[in-house]
Amino acid sequence: MTAQPLSVAVLWHMHQPDYTDAALGRPRMPWVRLHALLSYYDMVRYVVERPGARAVFNVVPSLLRQIEAAAAGVPDDHLLLARAAPADLDAADRARIVRDFFAFHHARRFAEFPRLRELWELRGAGVEVPAGRAERFTDRDLLDLQVLFHLAWCGRTLREDPAVARLVARGAGYTAADKDELLALQHAFLQGVLPAYREAAARGVLEISCTPLNHPILPLLCDTGAAHEALPHLTLPSARFRYPGDAWYHVKTALDETERVLGVRPRGMWPAEGSVSEAALRVLQTEGIRWAATDQGVLARSLERGGQAADGRRHFQAWRWGGDGAPALFFRDTGLSDALGFRYQSWRAPDAVADLLGHLRAIRAELPDRGAGCVVPIVLDGENPWEFYEHNGRDFLQDMYRAVAEAPDLRWTTFGEHLDSGGRVGELTRVCAGSWIRADFTTWVGHAEKNRGWEYLARVRDRFQGSLAAAGALRRVRLAGGAEVEAPDPAHVGPGCAGNLAAAMTAMANAESSDWFWWYGDDNPTDYAREFDTTFRRHLSQALELAGAEADPGLDIPVLRAGGQA
């Protein structure tokens, strides 16, 4: 009897926070548009082109909303700077272009565009533009930079366009007409991104899953005290945040929004940062989520604290906590997921794919019955790694899909298909709260800056509750397991609702995103720390203003301290 192939499921997580300034009606930062040009469309294309390939594409509704806006022509601040004629720019805008239009992988793009390296050397390295350096840039220099920055963010499909290929080949000496043509082509390209997802999902090539609405850390929304499950002595914010109704709101509206935009209602979720807790899983169960995914470190800790046997192979099957109707849990293989996300980016594509297949076959050899009923879960960021890969990851991804699809002992699947096929599902006696990073929450809470951010959030959210109550915009929700919570009512303040209070809820939900807390502290340094801090506080201020609540002057004080240190 021929042994069953080992199932391999890859989940690509597509995410950006909402950079939209409610007062301006446009994004302040360009990352949604740029990643859409580079990878969102191409990632779907690689799966569709390879017979036998399957993948889970996990989307965050705050990302979908911004792609819709970009496709409709809503500009971000960087696009407005790019459209302007250099001669019409004032000194501040010229300096901002010189500062911000080098945001790409330097080694890859400088090798491709020597003119970009020349302009970088004219600028001088560093977070801030050295004094007087922007004044060295002529109008011709700035025009080249405007064009080359946007060429650097063109992915495979865009570069196949003859006009784009011509501009890439020229490499310098661009005209205003060249720039206008490139930006127009990019805008037309954006209009095809979401239809590609809808069509691939309708054909069954992709399984669409989603993350709660604005990418919040669900366990911490339910109760910041959840961080003590992983690290009992962690210093927590002085103000406790405890709004499980907000967790439900993010889950419910995420499902509704994903269905509206992509035409399918997800049955699975990658909770933001793979963050789970028993309370968060009850929220998912309430909304009928069939499966969720997190990291194998969470499984190891859950098995250990639940008194169950643990070894290095137990994450190659699904698990369930909470009885019938609870979501099945998949636990990402940390080593393989991180290899795709970080280690393989400097390898030749054939070597990286051969290494991956070697690991998969070693896993199969060690599993009972050669892995019958098992699955290898590979879960990682679906947008950020590829700018570090040669050819934006094209060669590696194409070779990977082909190699597994053609291997007699391996096969692609999705988490939903794996459950449909009767894959193994074990029972957990408990789930220990944790995330994909060290199986704890220290990336988002515990550092003095991160805690300050939560204190700002808790203070505003407490005040905001009064506005929701006064407007009759709260509802009682009975969660799986029996707990009843008070939650913002999507029928009154959900996405698509009109009025200032609905806009205020959008701002509040944006402030609950995990991303702001990721950048606080000293573990994830960024050139854009001030911009992220300002955006976070602006969301909070706008939530109060739009709700007609009293302003909070404390929001004028940055969460960041001088030098980015607490």
Question: Helix fraction?
Answer: 40-55%
As an assembly, this protein is: single chain
What summary fits the major beta sheet? 5 strands, parallel
In angstroms, what is the radius of gyration? 24 Å
The structural class is alpha/beta
Short description:
The chain has 566 residues and is of the alpha/beta class.
Can you tell me about this structure?
The protein is an alpha/beta fold. 48% of the residues lie in helices and 11% in strands. The protein is globular and about 70 Å long.
Structural key phrases:
566 residues; alpha/beta; five-stranded parallel sheet; five-stranded mixed sheet
Question: Which SSEs are present, and which pair or pack?
Answer:
Layout: E1 6-14, E2 20-21, E3 26-27, H1 31-49, E4 55-59, H2 61-71, H3 77-83, H4 91-100, H5 106-112, H6 114-123, H7 139-152, H8 156-159, H9 162-170, H10 176-190, H11 193-202, E5 206-210, H12 218-222, H13 227-230, H14 244-262, E6 268-269, H15 278-286, E7 291-295, H16 296-305, E8 318-320, E9 328-332, H17 334-343, H18 349-366, E10 375-381, H19 394-406, E11 410-413, H20 415-420, E12 425-427, H21 448-470, E13 474-478, E14 484-488, H22 490-493, H23 500-511, H24 515-519, H25 529-547
Parallel strand pairs: 1-4, 1-10, 1-11, 4-5, 6-7, 7-9, 8-12
Antiparallel strand pairs: 2-3, 8-9, 13-14
Helix pairs in contact: 1-11, 1-19, 5-6, 7-10, 14-15, 18-19, 21-25, 23-25
